Predict the structure.
Amino acid sequence: MSSAANADMGEFWNGEGGDKWLRFQEIIDASLLPFGREVMAAAGILPGERVLDVGCGCGDTSFDMARLVGAEGRVLGVDISEPILAHARARAMSAEEKNVTFERGDAQLHGFDAAAFDLVFSRFGVMFFDAPVAAFKNLRAALRPGGRAAFICWRPAKENEWVSKSHEVVSRHVPLLDPPDPEDPGMMSFADPERVTRILAASGFSNIEINSFDTPFVIGENLDEAVAFLTQMGPASGAIAQSGASDMVKATIVADLCEALAPYDTGAGVTLGAATWVVAARTG
């Protein structure tokens, strides 16, 4: 990643992006729970193992894996956002978690100890690498011989109902952002499994397996939560922010989203379909 791109990413996640994530942290982590656990199951985490959690956020996946590896194992959570990591560290201290630590760093450049980990894990944290081959080479160097990687990433937007539904509604009021180039970093940048395979193979990984995982995705406990998430954090939020829409237009978007999502309110959360890839690979 270029220094300019690094600076932009760091500024966002240590400012507005980090603030938004913390605002929605409980909703996000509760909603993403099945995704993280699906990857953990695919990874086959064992007691005593050493795990590197890339893009660990507020630590939910790190804490889950710390319990799986037990007292003899350890988990290092890495994220680029200091405010988010401060929250993770406070949670670890409060829960007296002894085998999990958190460190600020850009995983594609960070100087990890060589051959220090059994597993590199990520829940939606590896799609934003500006130089993905270099990033995965760096992560591979942190794995012991025979070590493995396991992560989850989004399939195309059209296959994710929670994305397509919000795009459909928001596009009636403001222009959607132009889709990024398939090779550019972004939320859906690993949607093409052939690209994922190419990146991992070029980084020195082998035994690459990519399997689909479809699951109901709870985007909020109620309509207000769901709409707030989609308009402030979801894929369509950038279009709303960059449109310069008036308060009246924004209020209309909120009202239309409430109407569109009402059929998906189960009483136990607003639930739409989600489509992902679960990816597993080995160092050799």
